[in-house]
Amino acid sequence: MSHRSFKERIYAQFARIGQALASEKRLEILDLLAQGPRHVDALAVETEQSVANVSQHLQVLRGARLVDSDRSGTRVVYRLADPAVLRLWLTLRGVAETQLAEVDAITREFLGDREGALVSRSDLEGKLTREDVFLIDVRPSIEYESGHLPGAVRMPIEELPGRLDEIPRDRPVIAYCRGEYCLFADEAVALLRRHGIEAERLEGGWPEWLAEGREVVQSGNGA
């Protein structure tokens, strides 16, 4: 086998991954699956696509071995194929953040300056050990049930306004959600502060915490 033939064949395999990632909708699907397994109908609702379109995107991702599936009753549930896929997604995102000024511009346009409301993941570990904070997970319940940070209380963002009396006032609240570009935690912090509750947002969120190998509570169930 010639060197050229080898390169053509091996790079063609690498290109399969690149081609599978070359869609903003498929990246959104990967980001959702990073929160926990999902069936097609749930992904269609979350991404505001038809079931047929989501199914086509999932087949592309499966063809590149980026997602796997299992049957749960009459439904097929999809999940990331390997922890390496989560790291790949976060690495791709990180390169875009470094190389594309548009990423920062869009973030500032929609979210403004978030720096004053951040708690680092390393700092949170220490605060949790000392029970210095009240940690809330404001993602949808199905994501919390699939996996969450130790000590986190399930408070989906849509339930939070009606559950303010459950939040202690003797320590700061830290909110987290789906990751750096999820708006739920920002909305939670803003709501809590309007009600006089000291609150901050976790830097990143569930996928960043998980990818770093930090302790989690994880059931592996999905819907």
Short description:
By secondary structure, this protein is of the alpha/beta class.
Can you describe what's shown?
The chain is of the alpha/beta class. 50% of the residues lie in helices and 15% in strands. The strands form three sheets. The chain has a five-stranded parallel β-sheet. Strands 1-3-2 form a three-stranded antiparallel β-sheet. Helix 3 packs across helix 4 (51-63) and helix 5 crosses helix 6. The longest helix is centred in the N-terminal third of the chain and has 19 residues, at 3-21.
Please specify the SSE layout and strand pairing.
Elements: H1 3-21, H2 24-33, E1 38-39, H3 40-47, H4 51-63, E2 67-72, E3 75-80, H5 83-99, H6 101-111, E4 118-119, H7 121-130, E5 134-137, H8 141-146, E6 147-148, E7 153-154, E8 173-176, H9 184-194, E9 199-202, H10 206-211, E10 217-218
Parallel strand pairs: 4-9, 5-7, 5-8, 8-9
Antiparallel strand pairs: 1-3, 2-3, 6-10
